[in-house]
Write a structure and sequence with these properties.
Layout: E1 2-4, H1 16-22, H2 24-34, E2 45-47, H3 49-55, E3 59-64, H4 79-95, H5 107-114, E4 117-122, H6 125-137, E5 140-146, H7 151-158, E6 163-167, H8 171-185, E7 188-189, H9 200-219, E8 226-230, H10 235-248, E9 254-260, H11 265-272, H12 296-305, E10 308-312, H13 314-325, H14 342-351, H15 354-360, E11 367-372, H16 379-386, H17 390-402
Parallel strand pairs: 3-11, 4-5, 4-7, 5-6, 8-9, 8-11, 9-10
Antiparallel strand pairs: 1-10, 2-3
Helix pairs in contact: 2-9, 4-5, 4-6, 4-9, 6-7, 9-10, 10-12, 13-14
């Protein structure tokens, strides 16, 4: 499925609030915060020239978030950043003065954090980020997971000291249960999706993701002409598209949002022209993107700055995992989880369809930017789908570098 953006708000400026959340000043502050993280480093940007030649474009660059902050996912930038910001703000209220991130380890700030509990629902990656952020500041975390979250992903979150709470149903059911329980207990919800009356914290989560774009624009030889980014509730796509629009203005790239066909809440929202909930059906292998209701803030942004929307199938996602693990020519080997390469899967599907290729203006001069949003966050699932372990793929990369 492929749709052009026909929303009445398309090409209108972002709202003042969204422009402030995703703008240059906010992104600079995100990077300043990251400078205080012990394990922070810019993630790699890889060129894939052989793959680019094979589909008839000038260049493909992929930002590898599988190495972000020790969590293996871009979401390391969102939940933990929001937790830190919220602790600093609460400490400021308690202490009667502004509290800077440089004071995060101060006893008076740790005392404030110790009295706070942060809660969220997750498919895996966002919960790890919130739990890591809570552990970092000395707060508590309560993470709600639905039945489809693997035991390995639950264990990965629990390692950060979080209380794990199982919820029957889907991701969206766990979102509702987390909000209900947190309201009863006075916990702070740090969600990567938004609903009426709850927008600021999801905005902070998206703000954290702007670091990906800042790093990429510094490393790319020229700004991209096209960007394909996958979507669950829409947060990462909205953050990237919104910041690119603000940073590049009229030079911004053609932006395509890519959804799993089995949980295409953003695509169906684009088709309807307003936020819609899609029915829950057969689970998708793209587990981190299995969301059935869009984030209201994310959709408000995408309605203005996304150019097109498309879906990919299960085999598209698995093909890209295998292609990145066993690349063409001298392209680097990259470990991408089930949801990690979905933006690239969208590009490959679009490039193979002459009608879609023409609609997007993909040609021999096109320079594409995509994001590997996660590494092998479930190594057993990765081995089953790719036929090689993440360690084997990374060993090949080390051999390429040393050759």
């Amino acid at each position: 499925m492929f749709l052009h953006n026909t929303n009445p708000d398309y090409r209108k400026p972002l709202t003042g609030e969204d422009a402030e959340t995703l703008g240059l000043e906010a992104a600079s502050e995100v990077e300043r915060h990251l400078g205080f993280r012990d394990n922070h480093a810019a993630t790699p940007l890889h060129a894939l020239p052989a793959l680019a030649r094979s589909i008839g474009v000038a260049a493909i660059h992929i930002k590898d978030e599988g190495q972000r902050l020790g969590l293996g996912s871009f979401k390391a930038l969102g939940g933990s950043y929001a937790v830190i910001r919220l602790v600093l703000e609460e400490a400021g209220r308690r202490l009667g003065r502004a509290v800077d991130v440089a004071e995060l380890s101060a006893p008076e700030v740790r005392a404030v954090a110790g009295a706070m509990t942060f809660a969220c629902a997750t498919d895996g990656n966002h919960g790890r980020s919130v739990a890591q952020g809570a552990q970092l500041v000395g707060a508590k975390a309560a993470i709600f997971v639905h039945g489809g979250v693997s035991d390995e992903r639950v264990a990965a979150i629990a390692r950060y000291g979080a209380e794990m709470i199982r919820v029957a149903g889907t991701y969206d059911d766990s979102v509702r249960e987390a909000a209900h329980v947190a309201g009863e207990k006075g916990w702070t919800i740090v969600s990567d999706t938004s609903w009426p009356g709850y927008e600021r914290i999801p905005g902070l989560v998206m703000q954290g993701y702007t670091a990906i774009v800042r790093e990429a624009l510094r490393a790319l030889p020229t700004p991209p002409t096209h960007v394909f980014v996958q979507s669950g509730v829409g947060g990462i796509a909205a953050a990237v598209a919104g910041h690119l629009a603000l940073a590049l203005g009229d030079r911004r790239p053609v932006f395509t949002v890519v959804d799993p066909a089995r949980s295409a809440c953003i695509v169906e929202t684009a088709r309807a022209g307003h936020p819609v909930k899609v029915p829950h059906g057969e689970p998708t292998v793209m587990a981190m993107l299995e969301c059935y209701e869009p984030s209201l803030v994310a959709w408000r942004i995408l309605a203005r700055v996304a150019d097109s929307f498309m879906t990919v199938d299960e085999e598209d996602a698995i093909h890209v995992m295998r292609r990145l693990a066993d690349p063409l020519g001298h392209d680097p080997a990259i470990v991408a989880g089930e949801s990690g390469g979905v933006g690239l899967a969208g590009l490959l599907r679009a490039a193979a369809d002459p009608a879609v290729r023409m609609k997007l203006g993909l040609n021999g001069a096109s320079s594409i930017f995509v994001i590997n949003t996660e590494g092998a966050t479930d190594p057993a699932k990765y081995l089953a789908l790719v036929g090689r372990s993440p360690a084997d793929v990374l060993a090949r990369r080390r051999e390429e570098i040393s050759a």
